[in-house]
Design brief:
Layout lengths: L1 E7 L24 E5 L4 H13 L3 E5 L18 E4 L2 E4 L1 H11 L22 H26 L8 H20 L12 H15 L9 H9 L4 H4 L13 E7 L1
Helix pairs in contact: 1-2, 1-5, 3-4, 3-5
The structure holds glutathione.
Length: 252
């Protein structure tokens, strides 16, 4: 067993992720729907892509960076959070489900394949919900790797993060068996496709891990590189991380 000791060394890194919400789809701030997000959040990006694809106007409430100091719009202290019609909704998949059910009109985007009109395929509900849940768990572990890196913890010096990285790899191996040559739901750009692309793009752009090397997942990732809604929400690489703590690993 190994114990880790942390010594705080420097001021917090701002994890700012600059990105402008105005898009080629003509989405403009509106008093109706309001979305709390950060530029870098892959969960929020999934929601932003759905809103862009649907052509739904919204007021952007960009929280700038993580950690965030302004009061939180929800108890989970996380983005995205959507305010609409007097309701406040959090958790990206719940938000997307809400959007698709509340605004069932055809997508404004004319790209092919079209955005799927459902969160999960009605005839494959439990299969797709399991895929979505696996994508969410995979993304959470990858995000842990990124956020704790800022504190000086990595898979190389933390047993817990070694497990987190192993979980990401194992989820990706399983997803490779589940995905088809046309994504997770052939004929559609599905929320499952977005729940894979957004965090995995974050992992590459922010230097968390190089997950590439699985044929079908690689193809899915590459297929949507030129999709306008993805280009409009593209991530910027963040400045190099200078960890806030020095970590000394001691044998038990
Ligand atoms: N399961 C949540 C995850 C949301 C989440 O973890 N968001 C991150 C940004 S990527 C966040 O707001 N983190 C704030 C913090 O950790 O302080 C969802 O799908 O919306």
């Amino acid at each position: 067993m190994v114990r880790a000791y942390l010594t705080r060394t420097a001021a917090p890194n701002a994890m700012a992720c600059p990105y402008v919400l105005d898009s080629p789809h003509g989405v403009r701030p509106d008093r109706g729907m309001k979305l709390h997000y950060t530029d870098g959040s892959p969960y929020a990006r999934k929601v932003r892509i759905v809103l862009l694809e649907k052509g739904l106007p919204f007021e952007p409430a960009n929280r700038g960076s993580v950690p965030m100091t302004a009061p939180w719009p929800g108890p989970t202290r996380a983005v995205p959070v959507l305010e609409d019609k007097g309701q406040t909704i959090w958790e990206s998949d719940v938000i997307v489900d809400y959007i698709l059910k509340t605004y069932p009109g055809a997508p404004a985007a004319t790209d092919t394949p079209p955005l799927a009109p459902w969160l999960v395929r009605p005839d494959r509900e439990w299969e797709d919900r399991t895929t979505l849940a696996t994508l969410s768990t995979c993304a959470a572990s990858m995000i842990n790797l990124r956020f704790l890196w800022v504190d000086g913890l990595t898979a190389e010096n933390s047993d817990y993060l070694t497990q987190q990285r192993a979980r990401v790899e194992q989820c990706l191996d399983w997803l490779e068996t589940r995905v088809t040559d046309e994504g997770f739901a052939p004929g559609w750009l599905s929320v499952m496709d977005l729940a894979f692309i957004c965090p995995m793009d974050f992992a590459l752009t922010r230097g968390v891990m190089n997950w590439r090397g699985r044929k079908k997942l690689d193809a899915l990732f590459d297929r949507y590189r030129t999709r306008p809604s993805l280009i409009a929400t593209q991530l910027n690489p963040s400045p190099p991380i200078s960890p806030r703590y020095e970590l000394e690993r001691r044998p038990a």
